[in-house]
From TrEMBL:
The gene is ssuD. Residues 10-331 form the Luciferase-like domain. Keywords: Flavoprotein, FMN, Monooxygenase, Oxidoreductase. It holds the Pfam family Bac_luciferase. The keyword Metal-binding does not apply. This is Alkanesulfonate monooxygenase.
Length: 389
């Protein structure tokens, strides 16, 4: 008899470039208002998510600053903060990380983003070819980790020169906050095997995910290391499969062919990311081939860069698909849905019970034991039912 898999570590997403109800439309869109992002973080904190991913990029609010803002309004929530080596020195980023870990009382996680757009990186002053960016990142994190773990670092490298660097205050977490990373190229997989604690893949079909997991495991084992694994996915969960697929259709119901072509053209011209190319290859910009694996829908990737797939279905269906990924070694999920505030509730209320994750309804007593049903919120309260009725 096989034992049930351990519960997934389930994180949510902070849409720091904006949010909305329809992809490719301004109808009911929401700007990156700090007050709205705070609502999402507070909701995720009380709904049972272990943390939130905060992305990095020219279109996003600055990740460390935003995490510090949101940490003040949350209690348990961890912050998977994107860090892009090359946009600042490792010593400066070490000070940011140590301070954020201290002011959040040990709630910092770090997501390494080496970068998939040469054009955006050039704007940040980074002009290295694709594979060399990983050589640079290797030197960067040699100094960065030494500072966080020991308080000092020194390197006279090809890309990084840090002479007798010092860090004044250690992070709360020892030896340092965990490092997460995702990348699909050979250089990225080699980098992951030698450095990171958790490797994240975007939501590809299980067979493709299995290949990446095996490659990272091999790269880590060659260095005497082991790595944990996670997956970045969107979710469209409804009470029935039919309702979920209808919601997926609605999400792209206002998306024009012109918007799809414009987005795909940007991906082709500006991105040298192998992962982005793999996302595009799942659908090639076509609306008629979006279910790329059972319940794995690539409609989001028609216009969204990066993670472009969603699991679609009822709670039982989606939980079954997640267990397939768990069987491959995935133990962390970084999730999102549109709009992120409402979908945080849907995923927690519908999917968490199927996954054995605790949701708020199990964290606080709502009666003295009588069975009650929601009575509409009137002054008389809920409707009490006799036992067994």
């Amino acid at each position: 008899m096989t034992s049930a898999p351990k519960p997934l570590d389930f994180l949510w997403f902070i849409p720091s470039s904006g949010d909305g109800r329809y992809l490719g439309s301004d109808d009911q869109s929401r700007p990156a208002d700090p007050a709205y992002l705070k609502e999402i973080a507070v909701a995720a904190d009380r709904l049972g998510y272990s943390g939130v991913l905060i992305p990095v990029g020219v279109a996003c609010e600055e990740s460390f600053v935003l995490a510090g803002h949101l940490a003040a309004y949350t209690e348990k929530l961890k912050f998977l903060v994107a860090i892009r080596p090359g946009t600042a020195s490792p010593a400066y980023y070490a000070r940011l990380a140590a301070t954020l870990d201290r002011v959040s009382n040990g709630r910092l996680l770090l997501n390494i983003v080496v970068g998939g757009s040469a054009q955006e990186l050039a704007g940040d002053g980074v002009f290295l070819p694709h594979d060399e960016r990983y050589d640079h990142a290797q030197e960067f994190f040699q100094v960065f980790n030494d500072l966080l773990e020991k308080g000092h670092g020194h390197l006279d490298g090809k890309y990084i020169k840090a002479h007798d660097a010092r860090l004044g205050f250690p992070p709360v977490q020892a030896p340092r906050p965990p490092l997460y990373f995702g990348g699909s190229s050979d250089a990225a997989i080699d980098f992951a095997g030698g450095l990171v604690d958790t490797y994240l893949t975007w939501g590809e079909p299980p067979a493709q995910v299995a290949e990446k997991v095996a490659a990272v495991r091999k790269a880590a084992a060659a260095r005497g290391r082991s790595v944990n694994f996670g997956i970045r996915l969107h979710f469209i969960v409804r009470e029935t499969d039919e309702a979920a697929w209808a919601a997926a259709d609605e999400l792209i119901s206002k998306l024009s062919d012109e918007a799809i072509e414009a987005a795909q053209d940007v991906f082709r011209k500006q991105s040298d990311s192998v992962g982005q190319a793999r996302m595009v290859a799942l659908h090639n910009g076509r609306r008629d081939r979006l279910e790329v694996s059972p319940n794995l829908w690539a409609g989001i990737g028609l216009v969204r860069s990066g993670a472009g797939t969603a699991l679609v279905g009822s709670p039982k269906t989606v939980a079954a698909r997640l267990r397939e990924y768990q069987a491959l070694g995935i133990d962390t999920v970084v999730a999102s849905g549109y709009p992120h505030l409402e979908e945080a509730y849907r995923v927690s209320e519908l999917l968490f019970p199927e996954l054995g994750l605790e949701s708020p309804r199990h964290q606080i007593r709502h009666s003295f034991g009588e069975r009650q049903v929601f009575g509409g919120g009137g002054h008389g309260g809920n409707v009490k039912l006799a036992s067994g009725s």
